[in-house]
Design a protein that fits this description.
By secondary structure, this protein is of the alpha/beta class. It is built from 11 helices and 8 strands.
Length: 301
């Protein structure tokens, strides 16, 4: 029964994806009106996050960024719906990797060096997954947190694996990565999700005390895999560019929390450059630093 429901759900999803982009973006325009003006989906959360992140900006600028974010958010929704039927040529046209990025990852592949990719919810991170597979030779493993709804969980796994990505639950990542062979594969981590405050690395991120997942750093230092950062820049509606750069070549030689601090600063740079392209609806700063960690010196930016 579960498989039957999912199959029909995917057929409906795929059928909708066949609509041309100009119609999909009209749907996005309608969604924007409904979400921003009518439903006001998490609008208070977004505005509060923006005010705290950019205290130097005027209310006019904050509102402009907020409005730009919701337009981008709606565009990403319809772009994800479009993904099941996107051709290889269309993906490469709409989300190319810079030549330097392709060369870097293919060098790792040729040298049989496994890497850890760290990125954030900037631009269209789902489309960047497709683009990576179509531009680079490396086998890609994407770490994700399973969804509570089984049908949507199956759907997102199917979408992400369409062009060869191996989707791994965050609960299984350590076990899976410990079994890797040196084949030049790449494992992707999303760096801006909300970890348990007690086990997190705490730093100042966008002017606020913020917990950061330590998993990326722990695995990089244990396995010795270089850490690279994947940036997805929005060029215009429906078009992005992916840039990949090396952050840490020798992770075993780093100090505790150094890697976490470096990739957090790099993500912050992307957000400051294109604030409307980050996912501001998350309640990212709901947790407060635990008393057990209150004496930790939080680095300045």
């Amino acid at each position: 029964m579960k498989c039957f429901i999912f199959q029909w759900m995917y057929i409906l999803f795929y059928g909708t994806s066949l609509l041309p982009f100009f119609i999909m973006y009209r749907v996005s325009d309608f969604l924007f009106i409904m979400i921003f003006y009518v439903l006001r989906y998490r609008k208070k959360v977004v505005l509060e996050n923006l005010r705290n992140a950019f205290p130097q900006k005027s209310e006019q600028d904050i509102f402009r960024i907020c409005k730009g974010f919701y337009r981008h958010f709606c565009n990403v929704i319809v772009e994800v719906i479009k993904m099941p039927s996107l051709s290889e040529a269309e993906i490469k046209r709409r989300c190319p990797l810079t030549p330097e990025s392709v060369e870097l990852m293919n060098d790792f592949y040729s040298s049989k060096i496994n890497t850890i990719i760290v990125m954030g919810h900037v631009g269209n991170w789902e489309l960047a997954n497709y683009a990576f597979n179509l531009h680079c030779k490396n086998d890609l493993y994407a770490i994700y947190k399973p969804l509570s709804n089984d049908y949507f969980d199956l759907l997102i796994r199917k979408l992400r694996s369409r062009w060869g990505t191996n989707v791994i639950s965050i609960d299984d990542v350590t076990e899976v990565m410990n079994k890797y062979e040196m084949t030049g594969n790449a494992t992707g981590f999303i760096a801006d999700q909300r970890p348990a405050p007690e086990n997190a690395y705490w730093t100042i991120f966008l002017n606020q005390e913020t917990p950061v997942f330590r998993g990326t750093e722990i695995l990089a230092r244990r396995l010795g895999y270089p850490v690279v950062y994947l940036s997805t820049k929005r060029i215009k509606r429906g078009y992005y560019q992916v840039h990949i750069e090396t952050l840490i070549e020798q992770p075993k030689s780093t100090q505790k929390d150094e890697i976490s601090e470096i990739h957090t600063r790099r993500l912050e740079q992307d957000i400051i450059e294109q604030p409307e392209a980050w996912l501001w609806t998350h309640r990212r700063w709901r947790d407060k630093i635990p008393e057990s960690k209150s004496k930790i010196q939080i680095p300045n930016k």
